[in-house]
Amino acid sequence: MEVEVKVTDKQGRAVSDLNREDFRLLENGESQNIRSFEYVAEPSLDKLAAREARDPSTRDSTAKAQRPDRLPQGTTWIYITGRVNPEDRKRVWRRMTQFLDQNLQPGVLVSIEGGQFTSSRATLQDGVRQLIERGGTPGSLADLESGQQGVRFGEIEYDPRYQARIDNLNDVFADLARQRMRYFGDFFLYRYIDLVKSLSVLPGKKVVILLTRGALGTNANKDVMRRLIAEAIRARVTFYVVETPRLSARNPYLPDATFPGYQLPADGSLRIVLNSADYNVPRMNMGLPASSLTAPTGGKAARNVLGLGSVLTAVSDSLRGYYVIGYSPEDPNSEDRRRNIRIEVNHPRLTLDYRKAYYEPTHFARLSPTERRIDLHHYLKHDVPFTDIPLTLAYDFFRSDDGEAVLYASVGIHSSYLPVGKQKKRSEIRFTALAQARNVERRKDPFYVQKDVQIRASAKYLEAFLQARGAVLHVPIEMKLGPGKYEWKVVLRNEHSGDVGTYKTVIVLPDLAGREQSSSLLLTGCYSSELVPQIKRRDMSSSSASAQEGVLVDRKRFYTDSSHTYRKGDPIYLVYDLYDVPAQEESTLPATKLMLIRGQQQMNAPEVTDYRYEWRRESSDVRYLMALDSAGLAPGDYQLLAVLPNGKEAIYRNFSVVADKQPDLWLDPSHALMSCKMQ
Known about the structure:
The protein is an alpha+beta fold. About 20% of the residues lie in helices and about 35% in strands. The strands form nine sheets. Strands 19, 20, 21, 23, 24 and 27 form a six-stranded antiparallel beta sheet that branches. A five-stranded parallel beta sheet has the order 6-5-8-9-12, sandwiched between helices. A five-stranded mixed beta sheet has the order 17-18-22-38-39, with no helix packed on it. The chain is elongated, with a radius of gyration of 31 Å.
């Protein structure tokens, strides 16, 4: 831990000639050994002017790239972010440029909206200009305030049967607004938790200057705010916040036929769709004050843009003229407690200013339900993958009855990485999977699917499965998406330890309603019906929020296989769709031609032990089902091609055959587990 201490005499002047031996530091009443000690002096303007006179280029030069561990302890990192109303641009521009001119001294580096930390005035002034003109850099933290990050706050629909019970539209909408505001506040604060963690790797003092047009959160966000404050104090990050709201002339709580926040269909059902851009009432006194963040971290807040100057002055005053006292707490235990700090100096009539307490790191088990929920969404914002739990993924897409594409995905977890914990006398596998599909070609809200899975088993059964060679638990995920290119992410979290695994890929869904002879293909080893052996309830039970999933064929549901690895001798099922087949061709459709390739060599296609197809006249679709015999396939990697009737195109899937493999498990929508060991 490092503590910044400002020491002043009774005239308010900084005292700079104290030594390590002059201080005593206590944590929770226990004296601590001071391991590091440094005084960060106020800069000498005379020396700075003399330096610039000798070398004018030093006034406008990008800081040389240096390794963080070689930077001096007194380095200060300033991160500026926010949104500015058009009416306030001139005032903010004048104050910001003045602040930069006065404070770009040796050891001070500035970043605008996550750009490069630099001391170049030209670079920073250009960054401030873009920040002000755009109201915030697109994709930045501040961009979240306007809802442009595409956060989906949800949609609430009321059945017409309950229409008579809705007496006041204002009350209904106000409730929705509160839900939206809480979710927005949680997510907004979590973005800054991420920023603090990023800044924590930098040595020295860190300052965040935030211009915000709305509240930081509500009373419902206190747990998240507490975590942000705790992270900031441990990382020596100080927040300075300037609220820059302007009163809106529109009150979204009042019914208005032109207001886009609700629609009243002609059939009498009430449908309210709430988007972040539809809400702009900054003076409802519903939010946490900015001081709730700035005071504990040692910063200052202003309620309007007129206070920007005083806030920037406070930042300037805080940059130099303080001691940094470092120590390692003698109590290594962490139980999410508050630790109080007291610093004493052996000189009379001196005033000390420092942070009086900090919180221990919060273990995952003690996170609040709100923190856990938003934390899961937060992982989707990271481009760097998390690999505590390695994942496999496979997907296929089929056309639904209404002509839209449905994505059938399967996330696989190897048995040796299953998140296992204890629940009373039984072992328990408990995890949450959250998938997100974001259309990269259209600026639309992402689509989410979340599954909360809890599996309890006898220790004997679970131990056998965990030690099974090659066994995989498959989690099916179904999404109904329109045609286009999607960034598809999934995060899976161990709800016992907080360990996380993520997977990211790009999926292109074709327009299945707009092409003739388009097709889909699924290769799997599992289907759900009365013929599939079920795990005995006395051995294992599970729960999941799944709906009916899987591709339906002849009253059986076939599941996507995330690994496409099959044991030699087990059947491999192929579900194959043809779309928009003219009715007159029904009687002339040939059997599907299959090709098998291993390496560069074409092999004989595997024997088909079961073959059937069904003609769906309403949608002009043909669905084939084939069971392939893998007994004649040597272990290795293969590529299976299904040739389209025109003979010029084919769909392929890669798969592997192994000599020895334990049966996989699939999560079944009926809240049971299926073992797909076929006889």
